[in-house]
Design goal:
- By secondary structure, the chain is α/β, with parallel strands linked by helices.
- The chain has two domains: 5-136, no CATH class; 149-348, P-loop containing nucleotide triphosphate hydrolases (Rossmann fold, 3-Layer(aba) Sandwich).
- 28% of the residues lie in helices and 26% in strands.
- It is built from seven helices and 18 strands.
- The strands form three sheets. The chain has a six-stranded parallel beta sheet, with helices on both faces. A five-stranded mixed barrel has the order 3-6-10-9-11.
- A hairpin with a 4-residue loop joins strand 7 and strand 8.
- Helix 1 packs parallel to helix 2 (191-198) and helix 1 (161-174) crosses helix 7.
- It starts with a strand and ends with a helix.
Length: 349
């Protein structure tokens, strides 16, 4: 009896669990980013033996289980770095994220146990053709993004961007806006954008929707994919987009390009920082002047005062209930300003 197959969340746009496919071992020269592959779990069990399934729920993995994921790359500052191109002749893979991002780990934080190791079983194939994430992307007509954007950026991963996004979504929904939310850069995980939906977003998107297992890829590939993603987002005709740029602009996730692509419609920027000094670093490195600082850099009144003294930028602890109303007023005020400016420009024409 064949073992049960777990489908990681990176496969969620596919039909792999509904329609049959073959599993063929392909020569390395035929492998590429976004290929769907199968691996058998090996190694000693630890807390990282988890699969974020296609529904976004976690399933515990044990030795011998078969997991379906996709080849990709990751460059996380706090957890691990890996690349499918580093997979050796032993054909051993690592789960670079629980979402099924497969590659070979090249650097892992000493604070983490070993990543979940898998043995390559083969590629998912139909009618002799390998299946990729891109095969399940339906192109949409190009539409320029014109809805205003509330943008979350960070000084690193785990700086509080997703938490800030959830609060922003709730504030905007309370103010009566139709809100769409998206994660524009990062490494495949479904849980972040699912939490945006749980917070009230009318629709959610991320780079997996346009065939990328992570945004560590060539700039041209990123621009093309995110251009499609922004077209999908605009087609919702929402009032406002709450967008998270995963990791930080300084990491190799194409965050700077993503920010450039939405710069003209960015109404408000929240910088989530690990500490007040990191705020200075981002400002100096990228010339970014955020409208608000949040995250650990605003956890206490001492931190808030330090940010204000060093940078002149307001900081708020968004997990503190009184901050909720302040943020709502700031966001609504900025959106009203942008709407008035657009109306004035349109009137002059």
């Amino acid at each position: 009896m064949a073992p049960y197959r777990f489908f990681a969340s990176v496969t969620r746009k596919s039909d792999l669990w509904m329609n049959p496919f073959d599993v063929n071992i392909l020569p390395r020269q035929n492998w590429a980013t976004g290929d769907f592959v199968l691996g058998r779990v090996a190694g000693t069990h630890n807390r990282l033996h988890q699969c974020e399934t296609k529904t976004g729920r976690n399933a515990e993995m044990v030795r011998g289980d078969v997991l379906v994921g996709a080849l990709g790359r990751r460059a996380a500052t706090l957890e691990g770095v890996g690349d499918w191109r580093e997979i050796g002749p032993d054909l051993e893979l690592d789960a670079l994220t629980s979402a099924g991002l497969f590659g070979k780990a090249t650097s892992v934080s000493p604070l983490l146990p070993d990543l979940m190791r898998l043995t390559y079983l083969g590629h998912a194939v139909r009618e002799g053709k390998k299946l990729t994430m891109g095969d399940f992307v339906t192109p949409v007509p190009e539409r320029k993004l014109i809805m205003p954007v509330i943008l979350m950026i960070g000084t690193s991963m785990s700086a509080g961007k997703t938490s800030a996004g959830r609060v922003a979504i709730r504030a905007l929904k309370h103010a009566g806006f139709k809100v769409v939310a998206a994660k524009l850069t990062g490494a495949a995980r479904y849980r972040d954008i699912l939490s945006f939906r749980d917070s009230g977003a009318d629709a959610i998107f991320d780079f997996v929707d346009v065939g990328l297992p992570s945004t560590v890829c060539e700039p041209a590939q990123f621009r093309s994919a995110i251009g499609q993603l922004l077209s999908q987002i605009q087609s919702t005709d929402a009032d406002v987009l709450v967008a998270e740029a995963g990791a930080s602009p300084m990491e190799p996730y194409n965050g700077t390009i993503g920010m450039e692509m939405i710069r003209s419609v960015t109404a408000f920027t929240i910088l989530c920082a690990s500490d007040p000094y990191a705020v200075i670093g981002v400002k100096e490195a990228f010339g970014i002047e955020p409208d608000l600082v949040a995250g650990p850099a605003a956890n206490t009144t001492a931190a808030v005062e330090l940010v204000k003294r060093f940078t002149g930028i307001r900081a708020l602890n968004l997990l503190d209930r009184p901050s909720y109303t302040i943020l709502k007023d700031m966001l609504v005020g900025r959106l009203e300003e942008m709407s008035a400016t657009r109306a004035s420009v349109a009137g002059e024409r």
